[in-house]
Design goal:
Two copies of one chain form a homodimer. Chain A is α+β, with helices and mostly antiparallel strands. The first copy, chain A, folds into three domains: 211 residues, BirA Bifunctional Protein, domain 2 (2-Layer Sandwich), CATH 3.30.930.10; 147 residues, YbaK protein (Alpha-Beta Complex); 97 residues, Rossmann fold. In chain A, 27% of the residues lie in helices and 29% in strands. In chain A, β2 and β3 form a beta hairpin. Chain A is globular.
Chain lengths: 587, 587
């Protein structure tokens, strides 16, 4: 059916919405695809819902092609299965919880590992039933602390989630790889530029995972890549630990009075002035910075953690957080300092931290802090630092942690060269779950020898509503959206210009003929709107092919414009349907 | 893609599920279409989800055909718009309420009048923009007190809801009738037997409404129809009030000692024995029964109500409830009796009730209790009744109420003959909302004269997941489901029987060829399953055409069986695709 702009439920906006912080949000609201209903919660207008359904159709085709079967679970889920997997507690504030009229506990499903596991357990019992991959395209919920960026981080959103069930790890790898290949096809068809990177498993548990990140300057995720092909989400980057350093000749540690050195910078200046070194000047990399945080477990318990990183690096909260999941980070407050009197604020050092019986605080350091490295760091007394403090001789951390920021030029952990930093939007995530959920919920099948074995699972997600925004982030210009053909709300946008009735007659007929030829049409048939406004709207809305029926009609032509390149071609009205049809088919 | 039962995520069950109380629930679970996830909350297995999507496709086509435009709203909705319409309070316990991490109030949308009204207000401002009809197919929530009957009364369910917006009541009627016609097409295509009946508007507000009820012996809704074409939900039946009766000659009311008459029956026997009448015996219809209930308003206030009905009728709680919505009914407890000492339990009469200053209780009577009618009823003292109590002379009720049950043979209110009672399942409901929501939320547009007018709205619902069950209630036999062709999970079910490899080769090829010809195929290719089990499964699953590839193959034939009639036809393998194709097209 031709979508006529005279009746289409659409109003484009000239002004940017005040609450929009990314270009996809701005353009999708201005072009009339979505409207905000509440923070992080959006309504889909006709054009937007068409795009969403086009994306769903692509995903369905590719999931069906690998033999995954579509099912549909509720969004309102009972507490019990999530209790069994411990996620009822682990999710903390990040899920919406609901009590029914009988005070029974429910949650709005953020992901469905438990439910799928239980359903397969209900139906299947033998290795002969496997492999099995199930998927759904469904509305999901997450009570984000800071919903932002429009559809990129919403609280109600559409996801495709799928789950694979296999009798062995080898069989699982085939399911995992099938999904990986299907995802490559999906994201290719969505017209996204993306990168596949190693990732953390986070709240999902399991052993390994990979993310599909759409490259985007203002993406929320930072990732790294090396010339040799290493690619990882920055949270998953492993710091190569240097070899231990011999320290037999190292001088004894000595405490120095270091007045007026509140920052690392002032401390380094002080050292270079008072204790100049012959071979090289002191730098921030010679100092060891100890950062205190409180770690809150899902069960509500709170315990302190000290993190030691070289002074030339910052603690990257997202990296630190990723190591500690499902626990969350909180600030180390004045009250916390008061509760640990061994700590001297601003001068906290391994002298206290490295002795757990003194401070009572767990002390984890950056992997670069290996045995034999020498540091200038807090002396646990006001206005004093300790110099030549040797790791492994003068203090022993409780372990290492990936908390320091990753920098452009850092070496890739696999030796494949210096890292480059880039940003992206998480579009897909594939998880090797192992047996975590199958064990928690008792999903076992009989193997060939009649022995019960626990099933190996994978879970796989695509952000469907997020994809709408990611595509816009990837594909727009200063005038508006440029949809890749497979997801566009229509194949062509006919713009009828002028006051002449013959223009509208010709445009009407062309629209009808194109639809009959299987080309979907958005048709600007508004009579009281100026050509300029119509052209602006067509650029903003972003249908890939724009057909102008107007001035050229006198010569028996219409103008066909490519939204992306801006290229214009005059085509005879009589040839237009054939020309457009081949254009739509080709791309 | 051919669905192969060797890999299809499906297990049919021999036993009825213990919690199933209606045949559709039993069959849908046994045939592997749905599984229960929580009370009133179901998961859709592959075949079930296919049926659901087929129904959605039919609805989409018919809604698009009347120019309605598809949008999609969130299910998690902010409190404010529902506050403005007063439904935040009115819904009481029947909606799921959610607080986010910032303690902001949300609800899980049971219906979306408010959100659509606000969206149209956001985009539109002129009479030129109207008429407009918008729809969505969406997951909805209602915290039913007693979720039951599987998909027929669930707590999470799929609905198509649409909303029309018009500048005048005349224009509105065109939108309403277009929806009515579309619904007729939808329910015809779903293969449902149904009736269109007058209905109450309930929590929706507005002036008038009609229901589409699928006829079903164990439907939850009772409706009436007359030979002359009157049809109404029993809740909406209006009792014709008889003319007042002259009572100048009526004897004075007299109180009688009526020992041992705890029931109407014993009272009538007592009257016939002690006060026999010449013209006709006393019957229950001569007595007036006064029933006490407590009415709880959405704001929590609770007040008593006395309902007087002729003693030969019961108070129909659903009818009474429908008149009082959004208030709910509660039992009149011992404590309540204690709070109203003027009441004598078992002998409550209009002597007390008819005098509001005495009892403090509102007293509403059946419309048949008109001025001049004479009654035997409670005398407000233990063991006593009053005889010849005349309405309008001896007592004056506060008004009338439709609370008495409706009986087979009652006269239709429009004089179209005696009513017949039947039962049905509410499949669709179309509401004339008037300006209730537009006024509450300020939806106005400029009319032709530049004057602001409030928009007239309609709302229209189809129970999509409920339709799956209603179709099964309408269409099954003792062996299983019989799907109408347009909603069936597949066009044909190929059953390969026997051990011979040639059978499977032939069946494989037939399945492939049918799919290539646009016929969707469910194919029982299981090798280790007996023909009996396969036949039983095919009857249970209910695909309309079953093709048996087996014994007849020796003669070059397959057997084509019609699931509904049981009729079997042998068709040459070489003709099978053409034959089946015409069969599928025809119906």
């Amino acid at each position: 059916m031709v979508m006529r702009m005279s009746t289409l439920f659409l109003r484009t906006l000239r002004e940017d919405p005040v609450d929009a912080d990314v270009v996809s949000h701005t353009l999708l609201v201005r072009a009339g695809y979505i409207r905000r209903a509440a923070p992080g919660i959006y309504s889909w207008l006709p054009l937007g819902y068409q795009v969403l359904r086009n994306i769903e159709a692509i995903i369905r085709e590719e999931m069906d092609a690998i033999g995954a079967q579509e099912v549909h679970f509720p969004a309102l889920l009972p507490r019990e299965p999530y209790e069994a997997s411990n996620r009822w507690a682990e999710y903390g504030d990040s899920v919406f919880r609901v009590k029914d009229r009988k005070q029974a506990d429910y949650l709005l499903g953020p992901t469905h590992e438990e439910m799928f596991t239980l359903l397969v357990k209900d139906l299947y019992s033998s290795y002969k039933d496997l492999p099995l991959s199930l998927y759904q395209i469904q509305t999901k919920y997450r009570d984000e602390q800071r919903p932002r960026a429009g559809l990129l981080r919403g609280r109600e959103f559409v996801m495709k989630d799928s789950y694979s069930f296999d009798v062995s790890d080898e069989a699982f790898l085939r399911s995992y790889n099938a999904h990986r290949e299907a995802y490559i096809k999906i994201f290719d068809r969505l017209g996204l530029e993306y990168e596949i990177v190693a990732a953390m498993s986070g709240a999902m548990g399991g052993s390994a995972s990979e993310e599909f990140l759409a490259t985007a300057k203002n993406g929320e995720d930072t990732y790294v890549r090396s010339p040799g092909g290493y690619a990882a989400n920055v949270e998953a980057v492993v710091t190569p630990a240097p070899d231990p350093v011999p320290y037999d000749d190292a001088p004894a540690a000595h405490v120095e009075d270091t007045p007026d050195t509140p920052t690392i910078e002032t401390l380094v200046d002080f050292l270079n002035e008072r204790f100049p070194r012959d071979d090289r000047p002191w730098t921030a990399a010679d100092t060891l910075k100890n950062v205190l945080v409180m770690v809150r477990q899902p069960d509500g318990t709170r315990e302190p953690l000290a993190v030691g990183v070289p002074g030339d690096r910052e603690v990257d909260e997202k990296r630190l957080q990723a190591q500690l999941e499902p626990a969350t980070l909180e600030t180390f407050t004045d009250d916390d300092f008061a509760a640990y009197p061994a700590l001297t604020r601003g001068y906290v050092g391994p002298g206290v931290l490295g002795e757990k019986n003194v401070s009572g605080i767990r002390y984890l350091v950056d992997p670069r802090v290996v045995a034999g490295t020498r540091w200038v760091t807090g002396a646990d007394q006001h206005g004093h630092h300790v110099v030549d403090l040797v790791c492994g001789r003068d203090f022993t951390p409780d372990g290492t942690i990936e908390a320091a920021d990753v920098r452009e030029g850092d070496p890739a952990p696999d030796g494949s060269g210096p890292l480059e930093l880039a940003r992206g939007i998480e579009m897909g995530h594939i998880f090797q779950l192992g047996r975590k959920y199958a064990e928690a919920l008792g999903l076992q099948v009989l193997d060939e020898n009649g022995k019960l074995v626990t099933v190996t699972m994978g879970s796989y997600g695509v952000g469907v509503s997020r994809a709408v925004a990611a595509i816009v982030e990837n594909s727009h210009d200063e005038n508006g959206i440029i949809w890749p053909r497979e997801v566009a709300p229509a194949d062509v946008h006919i713009v009828a210009t002028g006051k002449d009735a013959s223009v509208f007659t010709a445009a009407d007929e062309l629209a009808r003929e194109l639809e009959a030829a299987g080309v979907s049409v958005l048709y600007d048939d508004r009579e009281s709107v100026s050509p300029g406004v119509k052209f602006n709207d067509s650029e903003l809305i972003g249908v890939p092919t724009i057909i102008v029926v107007g001035r050229a009609l006198a010569g028996g032509n219409v103008e066909v414009k490519d939204r992306r390149s801006g290229e214009r071609t005059e085509v005879a009205v009589s040839d237009a349907v054939g020309y457009i049809r081949s254009l739509v088919r080709r791309s």
